[in-house]
Structures are given as C-alpha cells and as structure tokens.
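The protein record passed on for reference:
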Amino acid sequence: MSESITVIRESLLHGIKGVIFDCDGVLVDSKDANRMYYNLVRQKLGMLPMTPDEEDFVHAHAVMASIAHIVPVERLAEAEAIRREIDYSEIMPFTYLESGLVEFLDMLREKKYLLAVNTNRTDSMEMLLENFELEGYFSPVITAGKVSHPKPNPEGVHSILKHWNLTRHEVAYIGDSIVDEQTARAAGVAFWAYKNSRLAAHHHVTSFESLHACFMEGPC
C-alpha cells in the first residue's frame, strides 16, 4: 500500500468504533418501492404521479412529512387513511439489497465495530430487516417512530451515541442524501456519502466492496 493511501486510510478510520447506516439508498435500493408506495396514495386520491423532485423528497424524509409534501393539506386525513390500508409486503419485492452489504457487515461485526441504523422509515423497518435477514446486525435501530424529531434532527444519532456510550468523534455515519448530510453535521459526526458525489462529506463511498477493502487495509 502506498504511503498516501495509508495516510488516507488511517485518517478515515482513526478512532472509529461505531458505524451508523441510513436505510433507503444505503442498506437497500428502494427508489422503485418508494415511488410505487406514494404514487399509490396519490392515485387513490385521483392525483397524477409524483414529479422527480417529489420522488427525491419522499426518498429521504419521514412518511408524515412526505405525505404532507405531496398531498394538499385539505386531503391529508384522507391520504393517511389510504396509506394505512396499503400492504407494504406487496411492495417489498421492489426493494433490493445493496451489493456487498452483507459481506461488509460481517467484516465489521467480526472486527467488533458497533453497528446501528438511523432511518426516517417508520413501521416498515422491522419487515425490511426480516425480509433481507439483517436482524441481529444493528443495535439500536432508530426509526422516525422512535424519536420526537426525525432526520435531519440529530436526535436519532444522539440516541445511538448514548446507547453505545461513545463520543461523536468515535462514530461515522453513512448516508446518501442531503438529509443525511445535514443530520451528520448537526450531530457532529463524520459523514461518509454513499454513491452521491454531490454531498459534502469526509469520504465518498462508491460501493460497499470498496469500503470493505479500505477496512481490510486496502485502498479507500
């Protein structure tokens, strides 16, 4: 390994004891599933499908904020009733596990890193973890339903730090959206941007395979 790569790697991983993962866009590719879910709500309201900007918004925000963003205020109660009738298990097949994730998680667990999830999902997170056999990797799993203020508020990260008894300097946060960038900044933790070069980050991750290699003393 070259001296420059060694310096980058040591700087990136120095003092890191825990890794926090966003869910959508990081653990899983759920863009198709999210699009289907929210467009189904709009369809039942007699509305047109979401715009690309609206799709980006709902991909990163909690469900209540997302519904409020894509549905007129006078129809929010109706939209919420429709949402609660949707069987999310029928949409789960359109969610895909990120390549290299499980191998990366296995390596981190073997090396005794602490792992957690901080997501703006609510009641579908348990189903997702079970569907992809990811139960047992993460503790805690913080969803929008477990905090008073979802991302980009840093409450979820603070809760994880308290659970782990770690400082903000000992944790890295992997996310793919501006909401994740804002969350990490507000919490004061290192932010690693996943497959999104437009974000301001301490490190840009192109794949879990490349990040795995970095942890295994390869190039970052």
Remarks:
- Residues 31-93 form one domain.
- The radius of gyration is 18 Å.
